Amino acid sequence: MNQVLDVAISTLVEMFAAENGFLLAVDSGGELVFNVALNADSRDIGDATAEISHSVVEEVLKSGNPILVENALEDERFKAQSSVLHLELRSAMCVPLTGRDGVFGAIYIDHRLVSGRFSQGDLELLSLFANQVAIAIENARLFEAETRRAGGMELLYRVGRTALEQLDLAAMLRMILEEIRATGFGDAGAVLLTDSPGLPLPELPSVHLAARAGMSEALAQRFRAAHFEELGTAASAASTVDDLRETDVQQAFAAEGIRHLAVTFLTAGHEVLGILGVARRQVEPFTVEDLELLNVLGAEVGVAVHDRRLYQELQETNEELRRTQQMVLQEQRLRALGTMASGIAHDINNALTPIFGIADLLLTRQDWDEETRMQLEMIATSSSDIAATVARLREFYRKQDSPDTLQPVLVADLVQKTISLTQPRWRDMPQERGVVIEVDTEIPEDLPCVAGIEGELREALTNLILNAVDAMPEGGKLRVCARAEDARVALVVEDTGVGMTEEVRQRCLEPFFSTKEGRGTGMGLSVVYGIVNRLRGDIEILTAPGKGTTFTLLLPVAEIDLAEAELTPVSAVRARVLCIDDEASVREFLRRALAYLGHAVVVVPGGREGIEAFQSAPFDVVITDLGMPEVDGRAVTAAVKRQSPDTPVILLTGWGTRLAAEEQLPPGVDRVMCKPVSLRQLGKAVGEVFGQLDQEQSRELQSALSNPAGAGA
């Protein structure tokens, strides 16, 4: 539009042989502004505006009539004005621009050197031209208003479509700001959201930046400082950068070329959710119509923000429900797995009982040669380790309870047994490939016992030895040693293998972390860490690439010595013991073991036979299995207690751990023992339920356990 008017003014100046031409309009605030000007610099325009607008132009705007000035230097109305004298103004014409609502501007032309340049006819012609210009300007303004309204509707449509299509809150807000830029409503923008929506406006808390476009993050954060004070409780507000109160805020916006700012609240009903700020780098400021559109935008975006927050809450609720369902399903799977694991544990324990028990019984003889005794010890140790592994299956079905009781563990014995058990891996298998691994041990004789569980410590040491063997594919030296350090024992495993980088060293104890490229599970060292941590010990790792690795386990010293811990209370008198089990091998072990301990033993193959035997003869102790055909251990216990309430009943079963964990002990049972059971455990149980010995008697019978009495073995 201004280009058309510029051509029009240029044509008028040429047609009337004038020097200068101006088209002035009244803005929304009632001030005169130049739409176009010809042949006048800014200083002259300023002077002419200041003087001519107060005389000729204001008279025309007030009266609505055109004015012709033949010589301003002689005209009584103007000759005293400083600008007229300064410019030596002579001829001038000014006609009003009149529209539907009255005068809204004026066209002014002059000639500063020639008097009488313009005639009355020129004035009439200029008036006719002004009428056409006024019509064109009004039409242009209507067109621009319609264009702005259409642009506003297009912006609202785009924002609404984005709000419907984009479910992610942050992405939606970024896209809305890009739509504001794309439609030309603003060159930059930001959305700041409250952390506590719904508060009244004066109490609106601090906001955080949720999205921005076309400006830096630091500048976007300034919108609250720049406009919130001016916004107050109004729906929206606008200002120029120069009007901002704080100089540093002015400079921040000006540095990025921002000239005009507008801001509105984001609302949903009566809730205030945040602030929407829009900035322009162009000359045109925000109009009243722009602020009305911005207010509508604030409500639309506010509802969209509210809906997204509800959607996110729904998603979180659904996710929590999904996790809960997964936990229920996992619990059901674990329960089923626990039932299966318990059954497996029962069968393995039954099979292990005679192996472990007979090996333990054979070890009481003193006439074995060294090789045979070592093999028997390996059978007993391996059986014990299998039993410990099976016992860990209870983690699938038991509740978390107190940790296992720690016992004194002889480090020298622990190392010797572990070295023997792992011999195939560090000697036999490497030798098949022509690789030699030298193993050296150094354990002081006076080294105190450590507090722990022997099976777990053997598992930890086994993992460290196997890990060291894997680190020496070309062979090397493996050294296992121990030393006392204050109230702890340092158990050291050192190899001359490939070593580890610092990054690997820091992660090597993590579960499932492995550098063996498919050859390992990544669980070995994490198991070591778990065992040592449960014992309240520490692990130190020294390593470097190409220089081997040293693991040091710092374990607490046992509070009691091994001899005291192994003291086994047994009955001082021979007891008549009834043993009931449907497994022949288990019955044979119980018969031999109890006979060796000095008791009179009767064994029967089932619950029915057991009840009949108890009814036909008196017994001091009854040892029964739980799961048996026809008549199980519960029925046996009930029958025994009905006939003789004081007779102790020991339940020896592969389900023992599960029963204890789930607190499902049958009524009347005095003691539960889990298969497999050692000779010492069996003797201790019978001793505790039948009658305790004093300490000296216990030592005497303890000695008897180590020297064959020739009974029943």
The total count of strands amounts to 22
Which percent band covers the strand fraction? 15-25%
**Number of structural units classed as domains:** 4
Oligomeric status: single chain
Radius of gyration over C-alpha positions, nearest whole angstrom: 50 Å
Structural class: alpha+beta
Q: Please tell me the CATH architecture of the largest domain by its name.
A: 2-Layer Sandwich
Number of DSSP helical runs = 22
The CATH superfamily of the largest domain is identified as: Histidine kinase-like ATPase, C-terminal domain
**Form type:** elongated
Indicate the CATH class of the largest domain.
Alpha Beta
The average pLDDT score comes to: 79
For the biggest sheet, the summary is: 5 strands, antiparallel
Helical content class? 40-55%
Q: Strands across the major sheet, in which order? A: 2-1-5-4-3
pLDDT < 50 runs, ≥5 residues: 41-53, 227-233, 396-403, 567-572, 692-713
- Report the span from N to C terminus: 119 Å
Do you know the CATH topology of the largest domain? Heat Shock Protein 90
